[in-house]
Amino acid sequence: MMTFIETIITQREGRAQGEAIVRRIIPLIARLAACYTDIRHMKLTSHRIKAVYVLPVIIVASLTFRAQTPSPTPAAAPPASDIFIVEVKTKLDRKERTDELKFGEPKKITDFAGYNNQPFFMPDGHGILYTSIRNKQADIYRYDIQTGATTQVTNTPESEYSPTLMPDRKNISVVRVEADGKTQRLWKFPLDGGAPSLILENIKPVGYHLWIDDHALALFVLGGTGKPNFLEIYDTRTQKSEFLVDNPGRVLRKVPNQNKFSFVHKIAEGNWEIKAFDLHAHTIASLIATLPGVEDYAWLPNGKLLMAKDSKLFAVVPLTGGKWEEVADFSKAGIKRITRLAVSSNGSRIAMVAQ
Is the alpha carbon torsion for 241, 244, 250, 254 positive or negative? Predict the structure, then answer.
């Protein structure tokens, strides 16, 4: 997401610099005209006339060329990606007394060639919200699993990302890149239509978010220049925030059947851990190390964690001494690289973003 923001900022800064240069040219042209008038009255020698006249012309020409120079080429858009749905069945292994996961064939639900990402299952399991960038514009779309129909949810001049159903189940919250191309805050859109409204006025730039309950949020906030991104909890009632850690990952999830939420903590290069924040005790505990270099994960309702590496899916039950084990390989389906994961509320389906 930040690629688009930086591109927009670069373009706007380029335009601003061009306007500033033009403002500098105008007084120089005025001086040139004055010099020319003085020269005519003074009747200087031809050499002195050339010296006085040519120098301003060179300056103006140089500045004019700079003003007409196009803005820097925008940063490359993120690679094209698609969203796939996979049916999941859990079978009890009586001998090992463990749940054995069985995965169906991946079904591609996105037909637009480009960026399709950030899937979010609706509670009924029948719909998926996701972000799609079309004509350089990010909007939210909804896929109906039963009918196979896709509908556009947001259609604005701004860009919306990270669609999330709010606790009231009447609105979705999104991270919105606003009209100035720089401001990035949390907004909400009514599901039944209507104008969007701002949720958090003073917290920016928001990267990712998770609703803990009807008034508390976990927020991934982007750091300023030279400063790290950080994770905090924000209470919309009291308008108070609590700092948790620097350098979090982008995925924030509720831990199944516990009063906790989880996140990836990028402690150091090559040392990433999935951790849980206890909402009652306000303490943080490590659950398990991530797969190397992977920050996307999801929970199954039974307490298993899922992560993906390339075309393979891995699972583990944290805090049991177990290790990540391969549970599926989707390479035969043509999938090469899986990134984000989402799981339906009853665990019967997973959504994968893949290339």
Answer: negative
Q: In whole angstroms, what is the distance from residue 137 CA to residue 77 CA?
A: 11
Grouping H, G, I as helix, E, B as strand and the rest as coil, residue 164 is: strand
Starting at the edge strand that comes first in sequence, how are the strands of the sheet with 159-165 ordered?
159-165, 171-177, 184-190, 197-198
Same domain, 123 and 180: yes
- Burial level of 344, CB count in 10 A (0-12/13-18/19+)? buried
pTM over the 0.85 mark: no
- Res 92: pLDDT: 73
* pLDDT < 50 positions in the chain: 1-30, 32-75
185-244 pLDDT per residue, tens: 999 999 999 999 999 999 999 999 999 999 999 999 999 899 999 999 999 999 999 999
Question: Which parts of 94-155 are beta strand (E)?
Answer: 98-103, 107-108, 115-121, 127-134, 137-144, 150-152
Q: Please give the DSSP secondary-structure letter assigned to residue 62.
A: H
Whole-number pLDDT of residue 93: 67
331 φ/ψ angles, rounded to the nearest 5 degrees: -65, -30
- Where does a domain end: 42, 68, 94? 68
Domain that holds residue 62: 2-68
CA dihedral angle for residue 9, residue 11, residue 12, residue 16, rounded to 10 degrees: 130
